[in-house]
Protein backbone atom coordinates (compact mmCIF):
# COMPACT_ATOMS: atom_id res chain seq x y z
CA UNK A 1 0.00 0.00 0.00
CA UNK A 2 1.40 3.39 -0.95
CA UNK A 3 1.56 6.29 1.46
CA UNK A 4 -0.74 9.23 0.78
CA UNK A 5 -0.44 12.76 2.06
CA UNK A 6 -3.64 14.19 3.51
CA UNK A 7 -4.81 16.65 6.16
CA UNK A 8 -5.28 14.74 9.39
CA UNK A 9 -8.57 14.58 11.24
CA UNK A 10 -7.12 13.00 14.38
CA UNK A 11 -3.98 15.17 14.81
CA UNK A 12 -5.65 18.46 13.98
CA UNK A 13 -4.95 21.87 15.51
CA UNK A 14 -5.97 24.33 12.81
CA UNK A 15 -6.52 22.55 9.49
CA UNK A 16 -4.55 19.31 9.98
CA UNK A 17 -1.59 20.12 7.72
CA UNK A 18 1.11 19.47 10.34
CA UNK A 19 -0.69 16.37 11.61
CA UNK A 20 -0.94 15.00 8.08
CA UNK A 21 2.73 15.64 7.39
CA UNK A 22 3.66 13.98 10.69
CA UNK A 23 1.60 10.89 9.85
CA UNK A 24 3.13 10.77 6.35
CA UNK A 25 6.71 10.92 7.70
CA UNK A 26 5.82 8.82 10.79
CA UNK A 27 7.05 11.41 13.33
CA UNK A 28 5.50 13.30 16.23
CA UNK A 29 3.19 16.15 15.10
CA UNK A 30 4.73 18.46 17.69
CA UNK A 31 8.05 18.31 15.84
CA UNK A 32 6.40 19.34 12.57
CA UNK A 33 4.56 22.18 14.32
CA UNK A 34 7.80 23.44 15.89
CA UNK A 35 9.52 23.37 12.50
CA UNK A 36 6.66 25.38 10.97
CA UNK A 37 6.85 27.96 13.78
CA UNK A 38 10.65 28.23 13.51
CA UNK A 39 10.42 28.74 9.75
CA UNK A 40 7.68 31.33 10.22
CA UNK A 41 9.98 33.38 12.44
CA UNK A 42 12.94 32.81 10.10
CA UNK A 43 11.29 34.36 7.09
CA UNK A 44 7.65 33.47 6.88
CA UNK A 45 7.86 30.92 4.08
CA UNK A 46 6.08 28.27 6.14
CA UNK A 47 3.03 30.50 6.46
CA UNK A 48 2.63 30.53 2.69
CA UNK A 49 3.34 26.79 2.49
CA UNK A 50 0.66 26.15 5.12
CA UNK A 51 -1.89 28.28 3.27
CA UNK A 52 -1.13 26.50 -0.02
CA UNK A 53 -1.36 23.14 1.75
CA UNK A 54 -4.87 23.97 2.98
CA UNK A 55 -6.09 24.19 -0.61
CA UNK A 56 -3.88 21.54 -2.24
CA UNK A 57 -3.73 18.66 0.27
CA UNK A 58 -7.01 16.74 0.50
CA UNK A 59 -8.75 16.07 3.80
CA UNK A 60 -8.42 12.57 5.30
CA UNK A 61 -12.14 11.89 4.83
CA UNK A 62 -11.85 12.64 1.10
CA UNK A 63 -8.93 10.23 0.64
CA UNK A 64 -10.18 7.17 2.52
From TrEMBL:
Gene Ontology CC entries for this record: plasma membrane
Protein's cellular compartments: Cell membrane
Pfam families linked: PspC
Chain ranges of the Phage shock protein PspC N-terminal domain: 3-60
Organism superkingdom: Bacteria
Keywords: Cell membrane, Membrane, Transmembrane, Transmembrane helix
Bilayer topology term: Single-pass membrane protein
The UniProt record lists the keyword Membrane: yes
Keyword Ribosomal protein applies: no
Transmembrane segments: 31-57
Protein name, entry field: Phage shock protein PspC (Stress-responsive transcriptional regulator)
Organism listed in the record: Lentibacillus persicus
Amino acid sequence: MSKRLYRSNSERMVKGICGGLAEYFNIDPTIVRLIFVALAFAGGASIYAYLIGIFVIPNEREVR
